[in-house]
Amino acid sequence: MESSEYLALIHAEIDGELDAAQRAQLARRLLADPDLRAEREDLRRLCSLLDGMDDVEPPAQLRANILRALPMAAAPLGHPRAVPRWRYFALAAGILGAAILVFESVKGPGPASTELTGTIAAARAPVILDTVRLEAPIGGRVSLYRDGNRLGLALELASGAPVDVVVTSAGQTLTVNGLGTSSETRKVALPEAATGGRVDLTFLMSGREIARATLTTAGAH
Question: Rounded to the nearest 5 degrees, what angle is found at the Cα of 95, between the Cα atoms of 59 and 90?
């Protein structure tokens, strides 16, 4: 399967449209291809940012003008995903930018539209503090992020069998079970006491330790 076809699977995964066989196929490829894992993470982060933004309803006439200006392209029969999702992202970003310009024109001078868009994204996007990449027998990565005043983990694992992760931070321990058999990213909020310092991870498969990792709020291992 070509890389473009795996990218189509990633788009379908983000949309929640993969069946069990496709998820397993994608998980195997992600395990073997670090570049594809990185590209998937970038796409998922972009989707998360866009999903977190408030909807902006443009004037009806503006929307009609934009839709009329778009090129018409017929999708081939039998390929419902012929238009990649990133094109819809571009359209959404264009409509949002146009709506901001209309708002500025009506309300008078204010922050530049680029500054306003950046402020919205920065206020809503979690901040990645540290990331570790995992090697065989586990593929993928684990990221420590701050969302407001809380810390959390984003666990994106790929393996041939379920993986349990024991997380230790600020003297408290929690366990995340059944990771790695699907390509989804599991997000876990850390206890409120974990506001800084280090987070230790122990990876178990069938109750046996197979790997360890440490993340810190300073990003140093």
Answer: 160
CATH 2.60.40.10 segments of the chain:
127-216
* Residue 102, SS3 per DSSP: helix
Q: What is the CATH number of domain 127-216?
A: 2.60.40.10
Which helix or strand (DSSP H or E) is residue 106 part of?
A: helix 85-107
How many angstroms separate the CA atoms of 216 and 212, rounded? 14
Q: Please choose, from the candidates 193, 185, 145, the residue with its C-alpha nearest in 3D space to the C-alpha of residue 165.
A: 185
Residues in the chain: 221
CA separation for the pair 158, 140 (Å, rounded): 6
Q: What is the pLDDT of residues 1-18, one digit of tens each?
A: 556 788 888 888 888 888
Band the pLDDT of 181: cuts 50, 70, 90. Answer: confident
